[in-house]
Amino acid sequence: MPHRAPHVLVVGEALVDEVRRADGTTDEHPGGSPANVALALGRLGREVRLATHLGRDQRGQEIRSWLADSGVPLTPGSDDAATTSVARAVLDGAGAATYDFAITWDVAPGTRATDSTLAVHTGSIAAVLEPGASAVHDLVLAARDRATITYDPNARPSLMGTAAAALARIEPLVAAADVVKVSDEDIAWLYPGADPVDVARTWARLGPAIVVVTFGGDGAVAVCAEGEVRVAAPPVDVVDTVGAGDTFMGALIDGLWEQDLLGSARREALRAISSDTLAWVLGRCVAAAAITVSRAGANPPRRDELDGDGPARRG
Predict the structure, then answer these.
(1) What angle do CA 127, 129, 131 make, to 5 degrees?
(2) pTM
């Protein structure tokens, strides 16, 4: 049946994170950058659908259950992969992760935005790895007439080849997006030696209304038409950083939805977002990410953890 409620369509990989800790212990968590974004939105009470590429194996079933528990349904054809992909994350003593992957990616035929899709989000591996990457790019371009486009490059150098090859995929999606979130670590790999905020300014000139750079425990900086907005991250005892950036991205989409800034009809309003409103949205993003890093795995907060009854609307 058609999904008629206003919703976000997230397009990208869902996989199992096999986490190897510095003390030698190993465990598994469902994950994948776009899947984590969808999960974060679902936990914040938003209508969201995930177009992904799972196997009908035990790991695939675990991912489906994990998503369903947070109110995230899959789009048709999302379970047609031969096997479910795995990302192996090795944590250092500070909880920071490096990754190795066994992954395949594609988009099911017929996956698209509908008239009730407020936003389409994609990023990370799905936007770079063929055969699915070209389909993602086409889907995003077709969706612009209906939806806000959000994008997080979330670079994985071990999968994406050279930085130059990755940029050939990433920069066209930046230009097609309305909102981009990127980490300082991603920028350091893509543009060695460049100032991250300078890169954000350059990307903003390509087309996005908002480009946000995250700096982990040092907060975030956003570039928009009105200027630049900086927010600090709350202090927190870090367990690990798995899923922190995806939680930030989910909270960013949620905050813009709260401000009635999603949907193609709101594109000019999004471009005119005030610094105060953007600071409010970013404040919730860093708060949500702080909760995620305080516990193991990609475990974003539910709405009552983040803001109780929900924020008063500002705009």
Answers:
(1) 105
(2) 0.92
Report pLDDT digits (tens) over 183-197.
999 999 999 999 999
Across the strands, what pairs with 79?
none
Cα–Cα distance for residue pair 263/142, rounded to 1 Å: 14
Which tokens hold the place of 236?
A: 């927190």
Could you tell me which residues come within 8 angstroms of residue 161 by beta carbon, excluding any fewer than 6 positions away?
A: none
Going from the C-alpha of 214 to that of each of 28, 183, 306, the distances in angstroms are: 26, 5, 19
Comparing CA positions, the residue from 39, 46, 74, 99 lying closest to residue 247 is 39
Lookup result for tokens 């990755």:
166
Closest by CA to 252, choosing from 216, 284, 207, is 284
Mapping DSSP to helix (H, G, I), strand (E, B) and coil, where does residue 240 land?
coil
Q: Letter for the amino acid at 42?
A: G
CA 164, CA 16: separation in Å to the nearest integer?
28
Q: Are 146 and 140 in contact (CB under 8 A)?
A: no
- 3-class secondary-structure state, position 212: strand
Name the token pair of 43. Answer: 């936990």
